[in-house]
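A.,

Following up on our hallway conversation. Structure tokens first:
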């Protein structure tokens, strides 16, 4: 009798909807096995081994949120569990309810930027998806809608390709697995610079000049902007983006309604507008395909 030993489950968490590919690691797994997550049967994929270590790949069943035990039982030729050939790992897998709505990182980033402008420059700060300007060449400072003065309006962003990063073109590579080389497809995130425009207005010229000095100080003092990597998990730490001025200050001291205004740009560099694709396992790779991938002749 080969008594199985279950030592690990990877990944250790997944959605309540099930269907995730999970690998069980241990020893003594039979070629046919039955795996349970709590009291629910998983969809069996395969068992293979290498150097005395057994691996079982399964797809998780759907379950309610919570932590469950994972159990593997060896089966005989008729598909019946073999008495005594069972291994259990307590609390090995956590079912997590998928978030139906998650605030985008871009939304959180814009909110943080507005908070810092309000805190460091002026309390009257607003955001605008689009700002209407007149069509006078070289003007661009005739703001149609404006909050009570003095005020700062943050508009944008527009997306500018980041010169340090390439676009997210899918590529393939061969990786070693216990059953031999397998093809992995990976699509990195698309990285851009976010271009914002600050439009600052005041009723008096002196007040506008003071605001220009305050904005210049803000841009010099704040060379980066930080956010929690995950708003719901503080243990994942912080992520930081570079913040730089973009272009020159442009002023208009004779705007409609005797409003003085200036505009300037700022960049937030290296922002990922998508998260890329996961590194999923694909088909097995034979030696010819492996050599093509090594020499750059494989699919990109």
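Then the amino acids I'd put at each of the 300 positions:
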């Amino acid at each position: 009798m080969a008594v199985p030993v279950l030592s690990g489950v990877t990944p250790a968490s997944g959605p309540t909807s099930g269907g995730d590919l999970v690998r069980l690691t241990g020893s003594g797994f039979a070629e046919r096995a039955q795996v349970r997550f709590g009291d629910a049967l998983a969809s069996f994929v395969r068992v293979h081994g290498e150097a005395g270590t057994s691996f079982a790949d399964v797809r998780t069943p759907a379950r309610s949120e919570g932590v469950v035990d994972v159990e593997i039982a060896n089966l005989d030729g008729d598909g019946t569990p073999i008495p005594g050939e069972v291994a259990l790992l307590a609390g090995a897998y956590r079912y997590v309810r998928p978030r139906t709505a998650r605030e985008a990182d871009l939304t959180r980033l814009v909110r943080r930027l507005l908070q810092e402008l309000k805190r460091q420059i002026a309390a009257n700060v607003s955001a605008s998806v689009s700002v209407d300007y007149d069509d006078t060449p070289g003007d661009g400072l005739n703001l149609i809608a404006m909050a009570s003065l003095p005020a700062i309006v943050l508009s944008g962003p527009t997306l500018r390709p980041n010169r340090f990063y390439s676009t997210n073109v899918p590529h393939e590579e061969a990786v070693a697995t216990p059953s031999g080389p397998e093809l992995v497809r990976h699509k990195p995130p698309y990285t851009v610079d976010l271009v914002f425009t600050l439009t600052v207005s005041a009723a008096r010229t002196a007040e506008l000049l003071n605001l220009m000095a305050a904005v210049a100080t803000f841009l010099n003092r704040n060379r980066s902007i930080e956010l929690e990597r995950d708003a719901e998990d503080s243990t994942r730490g912080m992520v930081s983006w570079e913040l730089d001025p973009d272009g020159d200050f442009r002023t208009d001291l004779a705007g409609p309604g005797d409003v003085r205004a200036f505009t300037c740009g700022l960049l937030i560099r290296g922002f990922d507008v998508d998260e890329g694709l996961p590194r999923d396992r694909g088909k097995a790779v034979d030696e010819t395909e492996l050599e093509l991938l090594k020499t750059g002749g494989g699919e990109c």
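DSSP finds three helices and 18 strands in the chain. Curious whether your intuition agrees with the design.

B.
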